[in-house]
Design a protein that fits this description.
By secondary structure, the chain is of the alpha/beta class. 49% of the residues lie in helices and 13% in strands.
Amino acid sequence: MNEKFKGIFPALLTPFDGQDRVDTEVLGRLVDYNLQKGVDGFYVAGSTAEVFLLDAKERLAVMEAVSSRAGGKCTLIAHIGCISTKQAIEYAREAKEMGYDAISSVAPFYYKFSFEEIRRYYFDIVDAVDLPMLIYNFPAFSGVNLTTDNIREFLADDRFLGVKHTSSDFYALEQFKAGFPDKVVYNGYDEMFLAGLSMGADGGIGSTFNFMAEKYIEIRRLFQENDMSAAQALQREVNTILRALVEVGVMQGEKAIMEGLGFPLGQARSPFVPLSGAQKEKLLRLTLPTLQTAV
């Protein structure tokens, strides 16, 4: 497995300005902020980016902004997933043109596609575009639960990089890694990062990595050095922040925290409901003291 795909990858948020337009200047600052912390790469235009609330032009603008800022400095993975195979291939071709190292896709959803249809979706993409594919397995949100046997059908093909496993089924994660040790397996749920590492994950892709990547970098280092007590203590600290986020809404809360750190990311796009002043004040009081200030 290529070493450049291991490690800590923030799933980047999308900043919006006061007119609800994608703010690529702030996005560039966010990229720089995390590069200075030592992240290994970025997962671009995924769930955290509010990708299904962006139009095609906005989605490509996000991909281009990150590529121009971080290309050659770290590993870049573009999420090109959507329901339409044709549209996904178009996004994948754009990612290739922009210099991305890999593409990723959630399984096509909503219409309750059969596995054969899902399988065809992924293989049509990798047949059309010469970039490694990372399967994005997120049953809670996509409604598609890819079984270990399903995933194995993809991982047996050299064009598939591995899997982003956003699920609490750590037995499945362990089976992916045991069956395909040369493939990359990312932990998806931030609150379970250490558990994912213990079952063989090569790193993580997460939304709260946007503002506390250094904590996950340290958890991984402590785990690799077999200092489980310190790693567990830091995971508990992370989870205290995550609990505060869940209380108000993760997407809105993450943007509020970033604003508190000096990054005006704007509101989460409608139909997300903005936080009240009281919610924001409580969230920042509980979280900012343990987070780094903006660079």
